[in-house]
Design goal:
This protein is mostly helical and about 375 residues long. Helices cover about 45% and strands about 5% of the residues. It has a three-stranded antiparallel β-sheet with strand order 1-2-3, with no helix packed on it. The longest helix is centred in the middle third of the chain and has 28 residues. The protein is extended, with a radius of gyration of 37 Å. The mean pLDDT is about 80.
Length: about 375
């Protein structure tokens, strides 16, 4: 009887694994923005969904089917305490925003006390005031109030008043000018802020509001300019030393040139109710007086007033020297004397194209 054949083993390549069965790394969850919720009954697209935050439901506005519940109200949280707000209906619960012009966290709590309150409420209010009393913040607030009042008196825009407050805060934090009166330092800060914000004011205008003498304003201006300049250099040096790159005007102060007659023409013309054509003409004449040196040695106010006087007559909108003197704050005689010098060299100051196209006429100029 024959023996059974021995089993034969055939060697071959291993089976290829199925890619679909491979274990994929788990990806972090992220919202699928290609999907949106629609009503399964109405199937309207775009859906007409209403979020009822009072009930916490998402409802179809067409058929009323509830599509979701327990939704979270992501809107701002407002509550009104009518009795506390004296019927002003102020819904704010978070208080005022932090003031960058004050130091500290500014998160203190105030215990109010009215005249009809109890003795215990009065004692609590007094104790809380003593505990949270900050003399430095109180001084800054009083100075800011004074700066704002003076800036409003000179019609300085908000960016100018905020810059003046910021400059004053720097002087207080550094402990500079302790021997100077607060009014003098404030006047100097306002003068510098006006130049930085391109709303220049003269020493005379600052003096008329602050009652700080013009020589004193000039002295404190020079001292403040040197103080801020030295502080800028120290900050830039420290930034470079630490490996950083200093940003231009990143310290809140930039050296600016002195006020020019051209800078004053726009404001004076606006107060005199002159047209834009006359304003542009006066500014161009003011620039020519600087380049040619026609009125060299005269103050910017006198030069600007004389330029406006000439431009107003060239444009046919003549204003008298007395009217301009009331706005500029210089005597009418000073304006006439400066105009006489300009009249002799009017060909250099007035553009020929103005005469050619009829925008200006030399015959309208008065010969004083």
């Amino acid at each position: 009887m024959a023996n059974p054949p021995a089993s034969v083993m055939v060697m071959g390549p291993p089976p290829v694994p199925d890619p679909s069965l491979a274990v994929k790394p788990q990806e972090p969850w992220r919202e699928n923005l290609s999907m949106h919720l629609i009503c399964k009954d109405c199937k309207e697209d775009p859906p007409n969904l209403v979020e009822d935050f009072s009930a916490g439901d998402t409802v179809c506005g067409s058929c009323g089917l509830v599509l979701g519940d327990r939704i979270v109200d992501t809107r701002s949280e407002w509550r009104t305490f009518t009795n506390d707000d004296q019927n002003n209906d102020d819904p704010s619960r978070v208080g005022d925003g932090a003031n960058p012009l004050l130091n500290g966290a500014q998160l203190q709590t105030t215990i109010a006390f009215s005249g009809g309150g109890s003795a215990k409420a009065r004692d609590l209010s007094r104790a809380q005031n003593r505990a949270t009393h900050d003399k430095a913040a109180k001084t800054l607030l009083a100075a800011y109030k004074e700066i704002q009042a003076w800036c409003d008196g000179m019609r300085i825009p908000k960016n100018g008043s905020d810059t003046a407050k910021h400059l004053f805060k720097i002087t207080q934090d550094e402990g500079a000018f302790r021997g100077k009166s607060q009014e003098t330092v404030i006047a100097g800060c306002i003068f510098i802020a006006c130049r930085q914000c391109k709303v220049p004011r003269t020493f005379r205008e600052v003096f008329s509001i602050t009652k700080v003498s013009k020589p004193e304003i000039g002295r404190i201006f020079k001292q403040l300019e040197k103080f801020f300049g030295d502080r800028n250099e120290k900050l830039k040096a420290s930034i470079i030393e630490s490996g950083g790159v200093p940003v231009e005007n990143g310290t809140g102060f930039a050296n600016v040139e002195s006020t020019t007659p051209k800078d004053l023409c726009n404001r004076f013309c606006n107060q005199l109710h002159l047209s834009q054509k006359c304003t542009v003409m006066s500014q161009d004449i003011a620039s020519k007086t600087e380049t040619t040196g026609v009125l060299a040695g005269r103050s910017p106010i006198s030069t600007a007033a004389a330029c406006i006087f000439m431009a107003s007559y060239l444009a046919g909108e003549g204003r008298t020297a007395k009217d301009i003197s009331q706005v500029a704050g210089v005597s009418d005689g000073t304006i006439r004397n400066a105009y006489k010098i300009m009249y002799q060299r009017k060909q250099e100051l007035v553009k020929p194209e103005w005469i050619a196209d009829g925008r200006a006429d030399f015959k309208k100029l008065p010969s004083l």
